[in-house]
Write a structure and sequence with these properties.
Elements (H helix, E strand, L loop, with lengths): L4 E6 L4 E6 L9 H16 L5 E6 L18 H17 L3 E6 L2 E3 L1 H7 L3 E5 L3 E3 L10 H11 L1 H10 L2 E3 H7 L4 E3 L3 H13 L4 H33 L4 H11 L10
Helix pairs in contact: 1-2, 2-8, 3-4, 4-5, 4-8
């Protein structure tokens, strides 16, 4: 079976285009998450690498993490693998740029928002719709406020609403809109601003700039995971919401 992540090295290895694949909506399931973790760990050892450009294969960035893997018998392992992947990105200390086309939802947005800059096509749609399924997004519960502020994070996490590219730019979810390919826009930005820089110095600068966010995630995420596993997943509504999505029907909330 083909690897769900492809890596294209450009300009002598200065830039890597990391392309998510493996499914129609580039679902961040076990296979894709594990492959991404390996790519980010490889990036940590690539001394010439200055930036990663992360994009989805096809029309979309990612529909998010696997809903099937959110079910009670799989959710603990899923959260552990997903968060290890996010920390592998942050801990590789390489500048990362998300290139968003189409939908960037749930876990896909969690991955994109941890990148240092987000470039989006004008048809992009972004959101944290987990609450619609009766659950919430652990990493976004910490990281989203760092990117857009507390009030905007509350809005997106509690309503589950999706926003278009222009609103995402105004909110701070997106840093730049691209008329054509956002991955080419990200590469253009990197070549313009980073080509003359030392790869070693860039890594240390990235580590310094990310320090506050990484510290917050390491401090707060374990307690949020426990809240998710020990309390949220013990409610009937969380399980009902996930099953309703998989069965393509409206959830029947018991509010318990």
């Amino acid at each position: 079976m083909a690897n769900p992540v492809s890596v294209i090295e450009l300009d002598g290895g200065a830039w890597w285009r990391v392309v998510l694949g493996g499914s129609k909506g580039n679902i961040l399931d076990t296979r894709l998450t594990t492959a991404l973790t390996d790519v980010f760990r490889d990036a940590a050892r690539a001394s010439q690498l200055k930036a990663l450009v992360i994009e989805g294969d096809g029309a979309h960035f990612s529909f998010g993490a696997s809903v099937q893997e959110h079910l009670p018998d799989q959710v603990a392992g899923m959260l552990d693998r997903f968060h290890r992947m996010l920390f592998a990105l942050l801990d590789c200390h390489v500048a990362a740029f998300a290139a968003v086309r189409g939908r960037c939802l749930g876990g896909g947005l969690e991955l994109a928002m941890l990148c240092d800059r987000v470039f989006a096509s004008r048809d992009a749609i972004l959101g944290q719709p987990e609450i619609v399924l009766g659950v919430f997004a652990p990493a976004a519960s910490v990281a989203l406020a760092h990117r857009v502020g507390h009030a905007r994070a509350i809005d997106l996490c509690l309503t589950g609403r999706m926003v278009g590219a222009s609103e995402a730019l105004a909110l701070g979810l997106v840093d730049e809109l691209a008329d054509d390919d956002p991955a080419e826009a990200a590469l253009g930005w990197a070549r313009t601003h980073l080509s003359a820089r030392s790869a070693a110095s860039l890594r240390l600068a990235v580590q310094a700039v990310r320090a506050h966010l990484v510290a917050a995630l390491r401090t707060e995420l374990p307690a949020i995971e426990r809240l998710y596993l020990d309390e949220l997943m013990q409610t009937s509504d969380a399980v009902e919401g996930l099953h309703a999505f998989l069965e393509k029907r409206e959830p029947r909330w018991r509010h318990a």
